[in-house]
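Here we describe the complex-level prediction in full. Unlike the single-chain runs in Section 2.1, the two entities below were treated as one system.
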Amino acid sequence: MNRIQKLFLDKKENVLSIFITAGFPYLDSLPQILIALEAAGVDMVEIGIPFSDPTADGPAIQHSNNVAIKNGMTIPYLFSQLKDIRKKVSIPLVLMGYLNPPMQYGFDRFIDDAVACGIDGIILPDLPMEEYLDSYQEKFKSKNLSNIFLITPQTSEQRIQWIDKESEGFIYVVSTNTITGGKVDFEDNQKDYFSKVRNLQLKNPALVGFGIRDKSTFNIAAKYLQGAIIGTAFIKHIEAHSNRIEEAVKEFIETFN
Amino acid sequence: MAFQVDKRGFYGPYGGAYIPEMLHQNIDYLQRNYLEIINSEDFIKEMDALLKDYIGRPTPLYFAKRLSQKYGYKIYLKREDLCHTGAHKVNNTIGQILLAKRLGKTRIIAETGAGQHGVATATVCALMDMKCIVYMGEVDIERQAPNVKRMRMLGAEVRPATSGSKTLKDATNEAMRDWISHPDDTHYIIGSVVGPHPFPDMVARFQSIISKEIRWQLQEKEGRENPDYVIACVGGGSNAAGAFYHFLDEKDVHLVAVEAAGHGVNSGMSAATTILGKPGVLHGSKTLFMQTLDGQVVEPHSISAGLDYPGIGPIHAWLFESGRAQFMSATDQEALDSVMELSRLEGIIPALESAHALAKLKELNAPSDSIVIVNLSGRGDKDLDTYIREFKNL
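The structure predicted for the assembly as a whole is:
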């Protein structure tokens, strides 16, 4: 059992996960942010691997990617930064990014090095399900690494069931048809969609992402599913307070208590 | 060896559909249905009528006498520059708007570099009464100002892409973000043989009218269907895909693709993908593109906005790797020289993109009297500002 599976075994509701781009706002911010997030009570962190052309992301995360690349963040550098992270941080850590940088690093090597750093899961939104099943699933299983898939309001019930069957960690429920940081109202159709997912009684827990920005939007998601993921709002907050990151992390997370 | 797309959407190792789940439903539906739709009788009938009466097809296959005398070959120009809107791009947009109608979509988005695809999209949207939004890099909006005005006259909204290099790849990113945000009512008319399967194959099929016509036109003029050489410029590669399409399995036809070398292949200011690129995943497909060791996309450069793209379509990555096509590159200056040459020798002012193909006539090293087709993909009206700036003695 990896740390993600353990987390959801112990905690069935109000799971709070935070997304932060590696190398943002400074090249070496990440370990400090991870430690502060754990201290503030966050349940899990998704670490974004920066890419020059993030087609599913809105302006805030695009900007964090550009800053991180300019700062010099690369996959080898990220792994050197995370080498000893498990001495300081024990919550589940997930790597999230577009397929091309890991592909250039070498996909097998990427998996091996991630696992060696204590990474528990991977989210690659542009890795096709079929290619994962054909080429990588065995490797993920042998390393006890969770591959996490997205579903959207457009994903058919049959496909959700298939994704659930092939997932071992959690399902990433994209709240609406939008890029990250998009304005989501959480009106009736989102609520219908969340309850539809809940009623499918999937074997995996489900976290809502995209558009979650504060306590009230978090609560709506957590009312239906196991919790939510916050990216854009956190990144904006950190950028606005980049001269005092530790305090800023604490302040941001406190607003969810 | 097979050069057509396989059932899974691949050309050799290139192609596929590397898309986030947000685009899955639209792409999956297209993959399952595009062939049935575009091969249906009513679709073909409507398309053929529009190509003939609206676009002005067939475009002439013109024997360029003075150019031929200069180079010692029998040079024919395939006059895609005479298409309505001034370039081959409209062959594809006509096909895709008919497809969008049959999909029940009411809103069209597109990306554009030189503005030719944007104009061609705005044109068919006006024709079919569809809402049209064109994404265009801020830099391109400036260097292709007349096309921006044309799109607006045609009723399209032009939205600037302000991220990255503010050129074609960034406009493509913005169009993909728009599609993610509007999957129900919107069809994305991709302008080149790039993007997730089935776009590369679909666009190649719509452009294949170019080589289909070349074959019967050459039969009429020379008594043979196959030329010795076909030369076309490659940005994403849609005009080249169309000009090569019906010759892919004709081994005696030499296919030449010309990329933009910019200031020179080793200048750091280039768009010569097959020389500078590596395999990776960009804009939904596995293909060759220019990138750093870490997999970040490198900003391309070309004087021609239509070739200013860091990658090539997966079909071209495969034509290159398999050796089926010969890839060459032409610098900004070589292209400009060819613009003036064609203007003076044949009375035709070509687009900067097409001039890259003309520029390699001098390096062809073909036997004399070879029959050489140059795909003249567009006309130079849109580039007049650049020509006025570069040709100081006008």
